[in-house]
Design brief:
The structure holds 2 protein chains of 2 kinds.
Chain A (H helix, E strand, L loop, with lengths): L1 H36 L19 H8 L3 H31 L4 H12 L6 H12 L5 H8 L14 H26 L3 H9 L4 H24 L8 H7 L5 H4 L2 H11 L3 H30 L5
Chain B lengths: L1 H39 L3 H6 L12 H8 L1 H32 L9 H13 L4 H10 L7 H4 L6 H12 L3 H9 L4 H12 L1 H17 L2 H6 L8 H10 L11 H6 L2 H35 L3
Helix pairs in contact in B: 1-15, 3-15, 4-8, 4-11, 4-13, 8-11, 9-10, 11-15, 13-15
Chain lengths: 300, 296
Amino acid sequence: MKALRWKNQWPLHLMIWPAVALLFVYSYVPIAGALFMAFQKFNPAKGVFASPWVGLDNFRYIFSMPDMGRVLFNTVYIASMKIVAGLLVPIAFALMLNEVRVAAVKRTFQTLVYLPHFLSWVILSGILIDILSPSEGIVNKAIAGLGLEPVFFLTDNRWFPFVLVTSDVWKEFGYATIIYLAALTSINPALYEAAEIDGASRWKRTLYVSLPGMAPIIVLMAALSLGNVLNAGFEQIFNLYNALVYESGDVIDTLVYRIGLEQAQYSVATAVGLFKSLVSMFFIVISYGLAYRFANYRLF
Amino acid sequence: MLLLAARKWKGGWSDGILYAILLVSSLLCLFPLVHVVAVSFSSSHAAASGSVVLWPEEATLSSYRFVFRQRQFLEAAWISAQRVALATAVGFVLTSLAAYPLSREPREFAGRTLYAWYFAFVLFFGGGLIPLYMTVKDTHLLDTIWALVIPGAVPVFNVLLLLNFFRGLPRGLEESAKLDGAGHFKVLLRIYLPLSLPALATTTLFTMVAHWNNWFDGLIYMNSKDNYPLQTLLQTIVIAKDAQFSSVQDAAAMALISDRTVHSAQIVVAAFPILLVYPFLQRFFIKGIVLGSVKE
């Protein structure tokens, strides 16, 4: 029986092994490496097997860093604002788009708002730096035209988080809209007709037909976004921030980059990264559990 | 009668607000891009005076001429093109080969559930930046194009997307092929792949866009700037503001171009391939996202 099984199944193993091997080397080996390095005083010349062990010293060090509290706060603060805005804006936009009856118009709006999603943060940051520049940027020209003082969007700690959240919503809301729109199109039109006959206004129809129809997807997206509570968006922040806004914009990932690759403190950066991965995984497990329970979502 | 008219008017009123909001948000997404294009075609003088909004002023191709004469910029674009081609080919093969066994029922493929978790785990947990960098270094990929292709060669999300598509295919075809003596490889090649063109197009486009846009791996894995892909080079020029005009001596040329117009031109060139395929892209992507996210 066993032999027969193998005879049928060996091609399946053969197919999957290239991917398994690559994931092993470039995903699992780094995980193992992190488990070593975070508890060592890692020395690249000696490698993970010969570097001295230091127990929890790296973790003690990172939590005694004067910047750590601020960085943790920034991370959670920026990520949470992005999660909330990233949920509400696409839902509102999908509900509005759903009211457009002319298919071509609907598609045009959808195509336009979806565009920034496809461009890299390098390109979008390049554009943002240009249009937000205090001296020659078009936004500040407009502000000056209203007789107001120029705003230092990218160097002022009061403005920087706002720019991060707004530009993130700008890039991604069109993408998320599609998912909600798909949910809306699957609502039975008879429900709308019935509501209309009962005298429900457009607002009432939105409230009592559209929103409940979207509810499972909203719950799913909300639960899944919980896993991002420590992901404030490395690529975006790295390309937009500078030393002047570390106070409001420095997050775990940018800190790991600076202490790891710029200052070559490999073990400390790995310990911070590992801490982030563990907390993130905790939230992902919870969110997956919630998604499974309330939206019956399975990964595969 | 009056009531009916009022209702109609009310509908028109809310329609007005609705369309206004939709129009404004759509334009907000498009406007910055159009503005950058306009600046890139304007003279340095017009760009500095701040009069350029949506249409080039003192229109000139000088910035583009400058960009396309920069050897490093063109070489970086070539590296990006090679990278996209290699990564797409490798990703296509690995994704298809992994998705097929994972789409089997556990009774057909004994290790299926174990393998599936092995794949899914890397979506949840990673070693982080430094250990990955060390691994890439230890496998001698630094400063080669393979550093941009191999570490992410198995896009697990694409595998999940494709395996879900495979599961939705009719099993009858496969069974009759098996009766005719076809093995797993033949079933994958002759039945699954041809029937999965929409899903394959989606995952391939995902891969292409991701690789064209990725700049961070170039920044950390390449020691020499000569090996930077385009987006990485753009990052160092436009964002990190590395030296730019070392090759421009001519005062007349300087009058027509500035850092600002050249940066805008570089941004437009780096975005161009995406804008070019965008109309094709977005149709597939809409299917792809819905395919990947909404399941019964």
